[in-house]
Queue: 3 jobs
Job 1
Amino acid sequence: MSKFTENKSPDFFFLVYEIVRCIPRGRVSSYGAIAKAIGSKASRQVGMAMNFSHGVQPPVPAHRVVNRIGVLTGKHHFSDPGAMQRQLEEEGIRVVNDKVQNFEQVFWDPLKEINL
DNA sequence: CAGCTGACAAAGA
DNA sequence: ATCTTTGCCAGCT
């Protein structure tokens, strides 16, 4: 286990940021996968961390984090609701009706990619 | 100080 | 297959 797992403290947000920043361009991840990567099941707090990521440095690609079915649940929390979908499409991810198409193809699993 | 909320997910019925 | 319940834990009221 790396610097991730083995943690369940206020660093939760920080760990979430680390994982999210590792998401490659053109890929997306889910709250649960990120939470699991940290060693927790608090997928809700992952969303909270995203909400807190406004002004965080380096910037966190929160637009690449969606729920487990690929729906852009948090697009309303962005400066502009449409920005999330626009950025995803710009990265090659097709989004229709606030839902990521080919989700299983663009899905990026931190546990599988980071801790190898 | 105590309870409720929430960018979710997995298990039970 | 859908609906309901529980866990999760920081932040707010």
Note: Residues 10-107 of chain A form a domain with the Arc Repressor Mutant, subunit A fold (CATH 1.10.10.10).
Job 2
Amino acid sequence: MPRYFDGSSPSIPLARSFYERHTVRVAKELLGKVLVRRLGSTELKGMIVEAEAYRGQDDPASHAYVGRTERNEVMFGQPGHGYVYFTYGMHYCLNVTTEPIGQAGAVLIRAAQPVKGIEVMKKKRGTDRIRDLTNGPAKLTQAFAVTGALNGHDLTTVDKLFIAENDKPEAFHIASTSRIGIRAGLDRPWRFFIKGNRFVSKK
DNA sequence: CTAAAGATGTCCT
DNA sequence: GGACATCTTTAGA
């Protein structure tokens, strides 16, 4: 059995059933998984190290709290799709949709550890500092060239963007805190990250 | 290292 | 019109 250390082994997208579950559970289980971006012949990979759960009408911090709107439509749709929104006038953030159809839910991918395509990421981010490539939700979308064009994109095929199992998993501990950058719903510890990982956005 | 402030477009009331 | 699931730069310790 060959061993890979450069993230070059083939990747298979996580099945829709992975996403069609309680959002908080999906958020936790996305830690350690590998985000894969395909840009023509270029492939970028990063291990997810931080994620936040956002639910629906029961979650005051969620975009879906107010009910179905044009922007949050994808959150109510089929699980396993990308929900990409634009914020602060200049940044995109990447989420993956969860829960059965009709029930809103999404997990914000906040940070990743670069695995493959690091030189490309440096160029897209305009910095050589590896730690600054993907240690935040908008940095990550910039490094992975994720924009609104990928809103609603199906993540269960190998086209353009998906999430796969980790080829070389290592043991880790999960820590949780309140979600970042929100005003409501601070009582819910729905931000999860890999303890001690250097690519987590904040300590 | 931390803190403060500015940049900037879209959504929703 | 206000808020925003953020990042960068600058100033100072």
Note: The CA atoms of residues 16 and 80 of chain A lie 5 Å apart.
Job 3
Amino acid sequence: MLDKPTGDWRAERREAARAEILRVAGQLAREHGLAGLSLRDLARRLGMAAPSLYSYFESKNALYDAMFTEGWQTLLDLPQPDPDPDLRTSLRRSTHAYVRWALEDPVRYQLLNQRTIPGFEPSPEAYAVAQRAYEHMMAPLRALVDVTQEDLDLLTALVGGLINQQIANEPGGTRWVGLVDDAMDLYAQWLRARATTTPAA
Amino acid sequence: MLDKPTGDWRAERREAARAEILRVAGQLAREHGLAGLSLRDLARRLGMAAPSLYSYFESKNALYDAMFTEGWQTLLDLPQPDPDPDLRTSLRRSTHAYVRWALEDPVRYQLLNQRTIPGFEPSPEAYAVAQRAYEHMMAPLRALVDVTQEDLDLLTALVGGLINQQIANEPGGTRWVGLVDDAMDLYAQWLRARATTTPAA
DNA sequence: GTCTATATGTGGATAGAC
DNA sequence: GTCTATCCACATATAGAC
């Protein structure tokens, strides 16, 4: 009969511990690279024995999965910039916010957008969060104009390409992401041209 | 006095053995992922003992470095499509050839274009080959129009973005790379607009 | 050059005591 | 939940026989 309330604060403590583990795991991943993350390191930094981690995550991949979910969740929590009726202005604002978020933690971006860890594949639940984050980012554009899936795919490729190049070839710099405004002008032009050539499609 | 000719066929045999190791290493990387490559597996598949590999490569990273060099070399060996005076046609042809090459071995593309292996950084010699391959791919465009570094950066981001999305989200499919023609039209439009707005810059 | 044998250090993961 | 002890696979490296 006492199980419910007891379980509550136990679950709370457990969740707090899990969150702390995820926080430190993120730190270590930023320091040693995503694949360089080791459970021994993680446990040492947390002041616990390595096997104790298995009380909170059933495997290293489960830990990656939780980091994956949490990462997309931060994007979902990102407030959308003020809506603007002008397509170019709206595109620029959303994209700038996204790029800032991506560059603020390149390792997180790598985990979320590339399949680089051999055995890891996000669980269906984690993938669902990623999907919601995607729709969250696309919502302002959808509200402004009619876009096809192809239009959105081209946008994600363009923005993702700039971010990838920046992270891979000049971490910390602005050579590629400095082209975001140009890229968005280009893309807005494209959208308008499509709207006039295929209005009945 | 016999050293020179003797050294010749010895060096030949040695090079043949190195090439065979690289070939099988590529196979294994495609099967188990780049980071999943193990020297024990590699030696087993080659029918030799693991320590024997050290006669050909002084470390695992040296092996990655050779794979890196060889990978860029295949791009350098890629014949450029017939030159065409029309910008859009030329862009489409070059890009199609590049995309085909990239998708024909996604793991190679990952090794060449992302820093995903913790300890590995290409040697200066390997990096020089990568640079030459880059110029090789850009040469047809350069021959046709005056382009700034920013123009080329936008192109690499756009094409690389399509390839990355394809590999990460739908390996084996065509959802993103099917947009290459659209993307090149978009980019050609951009180049022409730039040429007319900043002719004196 | 290539093998066997061996050694160290790292990693994920499990069993079982407390 | 947490610990110690342990297992297995791996990278790296060396010694010594053939």
Note: Chain A touches chain B at residues 32-33, 35-36, 110, 113-119, 150, 153-154, 156-162, 164-165, 168, 175-176, 179, 182-183, 186-187, 189-190, 193 (CB under 8 Å).
